[in-house]
Write a structure and sequence with these properties.
The complex is a heterodimer of chains A (about 160) and B (about 325). Chain A is α/β, with parallel strands linked by helices and about 160 residues long. Chain A has helices spanning about 25-35, 75-80, 85, 105-115, 130-145; strands at about 15-20, 40, 55-60, 90-95, 120-125. Chain B contains 14 helices and no strands. Classes of the chains: A alpha/beta (about 160), B mainly alpha (about 325).
Chain lengths: ~160, ~325
């Protein structure tokens, strides 16, 4: 239900996308426009998170206060506290609003530092067209760099 | 006796029984972010102010009186007009915070004036704001929507446009001065206002989406049409206001790009698609850097993997992360 339908055919293997989106659904809208397979982290802490068994990129919005506290949603922290999941994390994309100044999309900075993975990109709210294009291209390149095309253990170029 | 039965007694608010978690989330965000203008050492900008040319000073004071008017409207009319429409008691409480912070914003501009300007200059600028047709037109367009009896969701649309779009023809200027190392303390104060307006636009836009999703498809479409037509009306006024203010300093086109960018963000706060394409809404890097210092470059995909950047340290709650 929370999975997003990919385009019929993808040119190459992308890393999986795992994302959190609150009830404002800005990140959900970004992921929908990205048009790649994606798994949503449930808003409710009572619901079990998605099964993650391939290398993935996390897309996470920011909820920091003026001091930077509380940037990363608890449900995302819970997911990353699992060592097996964390081992598959290849990078993070943060989202937010530039109006927050130096703390813009700081969830991306926090996760990158905590998990020692690259911060790949930052975008605002639901993202603009150029953000979608850059992230798609970036993930495609990343998929090639990671050798995901050769893995052969997961659906790559198409999804039912 | 009849009057007695008409009195509506509100329910005592119980913050331990939430109907919408977003109310507490935003309440916490707004209360932690509370500030007063006395926190910012504005007097450090006196030497910088003295380096501005006369027409630059006039422009700056006029821009700030225009912002004062919008904050005054949102403080006394806009946010209070949303309160009777609140779906939860907690939403109403959040809106009291929004209303008060708008009063703090309006008050802040007077702090800037009393620190940097002469009484005569300021009085002249307030007179200008009362007579400027474009400023008055945008105030009127918003106030018409806020009027009692109007559609609560249309009121939220107008409120998001004020919070997330109309302020930005004004906010541009202190960001521009800051990018040239002028009036940097004033810019710090304006950044606090910009941060608050982001939360206000986000929250009111969120409540708009919750209200709209309950409506039948046709009414949703009608509201969307209304939103885009109000945006166009305000955009026309903003263009003229921008030309009148910024033509002399030669920044009109740059300000308009900033308007497009913020109009897109306002639409996204309402859950709608961006309107202006990247060609006309990519804000110049110096202004982006003034808005969010240290993060103007946000694309680390490009090049080889070695160009990836590991995040900088920021405050976190370590007890939540158990590895």
């Amino acid at each position: 239900m929370s999975d997003v339908c990919p385009e019929a055919s993808l040119p190459t293997c992308f890393p999986d996308i795992v994302y959190y989106s609150s009830t404002s659904e800005n990140t959900l809208r970004f992921v929908e426009r990205l048009g790649l397979p994606a798994k949503r982290i449930p808003i409710s802490p009572k619901v079990t998170g998605p099964v993650i068994d391939r290398p993935f990129v996390l897309i996470c919005p920011t909820y920091a206060d003026g001091e930077g506290r509380g940037a990363v949603p608890k449900q995302v922290i819970r997911l990353l506290n699992d060592p097996d999941t964390r081992a598959l994390l290849r990078g993070v994309i943060g989202s937010g609003n530039r109006n927050f100044g130096t703390l813009f999309a700081s969830a991306g900075d926090v996760i990158a530092r905590k998990c020692n993975v690259p911060l790949l990109y930052k975008f605002e709210l639901a993202g603009f067209d150029n953000d979608i294009a850059r992230v798609r291209a970036g993930l495609e390149q990343m998929g090639r760099n990671l050798g995901l095309a050769q893995m052969g253990d997961a659906p790559c170029s198409t999804m039912a | 006796m009849k009057d007695m039965t008409d009195i509506r007694i509100p329910r005592a608010i119980n913050w331990n029984r939430l109907e919408d978690d977003k109310d507490l989330e935003v309440w916490n965000r707004l209360t932690v972010n509370f500030w007063l203008p006395e926190k910012v050492p504005l007097s450090n900008d006196i030497p910088s102010w003295a380096t501005l040319k006369d027409f630059e000073k006039t422009l700056t004071i006029r821009v700030f009186t225009g912002l004062t008017l919008l904050d005054t409207i949102q403080n006394t009319v806009g946010a209070p007009s949303l309160m009777p429409d609140a779906v939860t008691p907690h939403e109403e409480a959040v809106l009291t915070n929004v209303a008060f912070m708008e009063a703090v914003h309006a008050r802040s501009y007077s702090s800037i004036f009393s620190t940097l300007c002469s009484t005569k200059e300021v009085d002249e600028a307030f007179r200008w704001s009362e007579e400027n047709p474009h400023l008055q037109a945008k105030a009127r367009a918003i106030l018409e929507t806020y009027a009692p009896g109007n559609d609560p969701l249309k009121r939220k649309i107008a409120s998001v446009f004020l919070e997330s779009f109309l302020f930005y023809s004004g906010f541009y200027l202190p960001m521009y001065w800051s990018s040239r190392a002028k009036l940097t303390n004033t810019a710090d104060l304006i950044r606090l206002i910009i941060r608050d307006e982001a939360v206000h636009g986000y929250y009111i836009g969120y409540k708009f989406q919750r209200g709209m999703e309950k409506l039948p498809e046709a009414e949703q479409q009608a509201l969307k049409d209304y939103a885009y037509s109000l945006l166009f009306e305000l955009y026309e006024i903003e263009n003229q206001y921008t030309e009148e203010l910024y033509d002399e300093i030669g920044l009109t086109e740059d300000v308009k790009t900033f308007l497009h960018y913020n109009a897109n963000k306002a639409l996204q706060n309402l859950g709608f698609e961006a309107l202006f394409p990247p060609e006309v809404s990519e804000v110049n890097a110096a202004i982006l850097a003034a808005l969010s210092p240290d993060s103007e470059n946000h694309d680390f995909f490009s090049g080889s993997g070695s160009s990836y950047v590991i995040g900088k340290a920021v405050a976190t709650e370590d007890e939540d992360w158990d590895f």
